[in-house]
Amino acid sequence: MNAGELLSLCKRRGFIWPSFEIYGGVAGMYDYGPLGSVLKENIIRLWRQAYRYGEGFTEIDSVTINPEAVFKASGHLDEFSDCIVYCNECGEPFRADHLVARLHPNPDTLDAKSLKELIREHDVTCPECGGTLGDVEEFNLMFRTFIGPGSSRIGYLRPETAQGIFVNFPNLYRYNREKLPLGVIQQGRGYRNEISPRQGMIRLREFNMMEVELFVDPENKTWPRYPFVKEEMLRLIPNDGVERVMSLDGAVREGVIANEVLAYFIWLTKDLLVKMGVDPARLHFRQHLSEEMAHYATDCWDAEVLISYGWTEIVGIADRGSWDLTQHAKWSHEDMTHFKRYDEPHEVEQKVIKAKHSKLGPRFKEDAKEITNLIESCQAEDIKDGALQIEHNGKPLTISDEFFEVETLIRKVSGEKVIPHVIEPSYGLDRIFYTILEHAYHKRDDDYTVLKLKPILAPIKVGVFPLMARDGLDEKAQEIFRLLMDAGIEAYYDDSGSIGKRYARMDEIGTPWCVTIDYETLEEGRGKKDTVTIRDRDSTKQIRVPIDKLVKTIHTMLNGVNFESI
RNA sequence: GCGACUGUAGUCUAGCGGUCAGGACCGAGGCUUCCCAAGCCUCUAGCCCGGGUUCAAAUCCCGGCAGUCGCACCA
After folding, report:
1. Which of A254, A277, A287, A395 is the most exposed place for a label (fewest CB within 10 A)?
2. Which single residue has its CA nearest the C1' atom of nucleotide B48?
């Protein structure tokens, strides 16, 4: 299949539209149309079902504009940007740090100003044509803006939703009553000012993410539900490049997947994607090579699917270690730790140095207080030959043991502070949306298109048609349409053209069932009064059910019961 | 950001200096007792945007925007 055909269908039928089309469009931006927004919502619902209800994770919704400090701490400001310099003559762009590589030991640590100075000082010219170089510009992939009037407060549109969770860690941790594991999910938009977005919905400048941040004890990367799924099979491509099919447990035991939690969420991701209609034959998990790993990750597996653009990453499952919380603790000076209580409090023997005030006072007079503090901040191990070496007023000073004594204290320690590790399954919603459409797209020989969406995801569940728009069939059909909508089943009424055309219209947008009201529905005496036909999208077969069982039947099928077994 | 190619109704497409820009599909209305895109009639709707060349531009030229493909980029 080719992406053009599907994109054309999406646009024609209202799944997605290129944004700002009347003004010529903007690359990398798409609007979700009426069918698209419902499909997107349905995908989010399944994801939420898996994490919030399935795993008991908690959900938040944080802001999209963040102050600069957040990205200084997260590393995005440094790691996510390059300094670019353009040649004044030929216009060729260069990485500024590459041009001064021989003039500085660490050119990538320099800011734009120092790079510019270095280029001026050493008369660095264009390596292509020898022309002079222009100003050094920072090119960061984050969208920049200002918070409030004036230009003093710089803000950025978030490139990932994750930071909103990390900066709220202290709140979330208290909310979870200071326990680990702590699972937090967030769905929302992210922004990346891509230099050249291509491939339709695959690389967007404004995109939707469903992110999960799971905070765990660094020394306990197990998972309670792991034993129930550990024999499930996964298609893996570890970083040695050799594809193999292994059970979760096999992969963990052989060290292919680092730990149980990571393995469990790889499996959960596979299960979720397949439930959404991603073809398992076109899905595998690939481990990142160390050089392609993000600046924050210690291990990372991508769910990749085969679509018309080739194997494409749609989910990334990373072990971010303690990177994010450590960084935010450092920059914000907030406590980002978990207090890990021991089963039994440990008794720790500690030797402390106590100053002898009665000796220190007469000897050191007004300096005595300061020296006391210096002595008491020393450790017992600092004592050499019965004396302490300290520095007072810039001069070394030897304090003999007549001025202090060593006391042994027994302290009770009931736990320790640890920085939690973060396991992050991050779902690219737009890419999943597109993959579901591609994998659902079927074409029969006669150019007839059927979108075989999972019923649970289909934007419209039931098409309602009177066989003819007359003889009271249309009134009856309207009644049934109301009946379904009132029961919360998204239905679509259509009485135009031929019946075949109406079925075709519904098939093309993935509607799983069509209800038809015919003359027998109204006819007395033949035992078929008040019954309607339900026609199945994939088999085109029909069954006849009483109207008063219709809602129940549709609900049964939405819960996964096959049409054939009704 | 660079290079090549491209841009005609909602979709697909013909026209490539000179008629009211032609068709197909979709869509809307109508006729046909009509369960899988049937047929017939009627209708709606288009030259990506801006500038230039020319008596005359959808057509040629320049710029922009967008798309496809390569290069670069892609946490």
Report:
1. A395
2. A24
Mean pLDDT value of segment A462-491: 93
What's the token pair of residue A168?
């709220």
Instruction: Find the nucleotide nearest A140 (Cα to C1′).
Output: B73
| Residue A252: closest CA among A219, A271, A230 | A230
Please report, as a single letter, which amino acid is at residue A151.
Answer: S
Per-residue DSSP letter, A382? G
Residue nearest to nucleotide B7 (CA to C1'): A24
In tens, the pLDDT along A369-416 reads 777 777 777 777 778 787 877 777 777 878 887 778 787 777 788 888
Question: Secondary structure of A157-196 in the HEC alphabet?
Answer: ECCCCHHHHHCCHHHHHHHCCCCCCEEEEEEEEEECCCCC
Q: What sections of A420-461 are H helices per DSSP?
A: 429-440
Torsion angle of C-alpha atoms A536, A43, A495, A451, degrees rounded to 10: -50
Residue A206 (CA) to nucleotide B65 (C1'), in angstroms, measures 19
Residue A145: φ, ψ to 5°: -150, 180
Q: How far is Cα A297 from Cα A295, in angstroms, rounded to an integer?
A: 6
CA distance A458 to A462: 9
Q: Which residue's CA shows the smallest distance to C1' of B31?
A: A497
Q: How far is the CA of A26 from the C1' of B62 (A)?
A: 22
Q: Which nucleotide across the nucleic acid strands is nearest to A497, CA versus C1'? A: B34
A467, A519 in Cβ contact below 8 A?
yes
Whether a cis peptide bond, with omega within 30° of 0, leads into A181 is yes
Q: What is the ipTM of this complex?
A: 0.85
Which nucleotide comes closest to A295 if you measure CA to C1'?
B75
Integer distance in angstroms from the first to the last C-alpha of chain A? Answer: 33
Stated in angstroms, how far is A25 CA from B64 C1'?
Answer: 12
Nucleotide with C1' nearest the A93 CA: B1
